[in-house]
Specification:
Rossmann fold; 13 helices; 8 strands; globular; AB_hydrolase_fold; AB_hydrolase_sf; catalytic activity; Epox_hydrolase-like
């Protein structure tokens, strides 16, 4: 069973963290959820990683500030910059050593990019694999909601205005009472051709837990981020980029630009799928993640072997 924990960050925000898997695992996986969601987005992948037997990694999943069971954030801290710093702190507290695989969905993927931008030395020395799911490195550049450009522009303008109002509405959650009425629109926006009831339930639950401040507050930062240059500088980190061809928020153009920027990245476009790939297509996402973890574990084993051989040679020479 996962162990539940909490940490308090430097600005006083409390993060709810779930840790599972062996403490001495060769690799640690950190799972980052999307905007207005929570760590339960990754429930199928956590199960798949736990099913790897003796090769199972340590798995860390946490609720982003202002989401899930984590504490509320101040409006000025509802930024991707802050989320990148939060990820750095989670790694220092829960995975201070050893190789790490980072998996991010939507805003979680953007958080990983911000961590790479703000903490390049930590990233290069620790990260052994990446899974970027339904995310973007170019803000809202490619987001047209599956609508004609003029209509999408009007919708974005209304969304931006509404986000500003919500951001100033505080840490309460009155929208939970409205979720049944919002359900058809959320299903249309976030899911593709098929939508299992269980997947929609997890999604609606995450949205219901997010505060109005979080729903509105992160919008400006998410829309403005530009991190293709950061990705291009990462070198040969093993990476898989996944997107659904029915994704209305981060369409295939977003994933294609990420894969083009990341040297050697593998791109997977899933037919008929929308934005919620970890829940919509759990088997495909789990397979991609397990593959990256196995690759990272093999690399770690080779590194340990090489270090041991070097130590032996030095002792013999002495």
């Amino acid at each position: 069973m996962p162990q539940r924990s909490e940490i308090t960050l430097a600005d006083g925000v409390r993060l709810h963290v779930s840790v599972s898997g062996p403490a001495d695992a060769a690799v640690t996986v950190v799972l980052l959820h999307g905007w207005c969601l929570d760590r339960r987005t990754w429930r199928d992948q956590v199960a798949a990683l736990g099913g790897m037997g003796g090769k199972a990694p340590r798995v860390i999943a946490y609720d982003t500030r202002g989401h899930g069971r984590s504490g509320h954030t101040r409006l000025g801290s509802a930024t991707l910059d802050q989320l990148g710093d939060d990820l750095a702190e989670v790694l220092r507290r829960f995975a201070p050593t050893g190789p790490v695989v980072l998996a991010g969905h939507s805003m979680g993927g953007m958080t990983i990019m911000e961590f790479a931008h703000r903490h390049p030395e930590e990233f290069s020395s620790r990260v052994a694999g990446l899974l970027l799911v339904s995310t973007t490195a170019e803000g809202h550049t490619h987001t047209h909601y599956g609508l004609p450009a003029r209509v999408a522009g009007l919708l974005r303008a209304g969304e931006t205005l509404g986000a500003g109002v919500l951001a100033r509405s505080g840490a309460w959650r009155p929208h939970r009472m409205m979720l049944p009425a919002l359900r058809p629109a959320i299903q249309w926006l976030l899911f593709g051709d098929d939508c299992a009831e269980a997947a929609l339930k997890v999604t609606m639950g995450g949205i219901g837990r997010a505060s109005l401040r979080s729903i509105g507050g992160f919008r400006e930062s998410v829309g403005a981020q530009q991190r293709l240059d950061t990705l291009a500088a990462l070198g040969g980190v093993p990476a898989t980029v996944m997107v659904g061809d029915r994704d209305r928020l981060t369409p295939p153009a977003c994933a294609e630009s990420i894969a083009d920027a990341l040297p050697g990245a593998r791109l997977e476009i899933l037919p008929g799928a929308g934005h919620m790939l970890p829940l919509e297509r759990p088997d495909e996402v789990s397979t991609a993640l397990v593959t990256i973890v196995r690759r990272a574990a093999r690399a770690a084993k080779r590194s340990r072997r090489a270090a041991g051989e070097a130590t032996t040679r030095c002792r013999r020479a002495a």
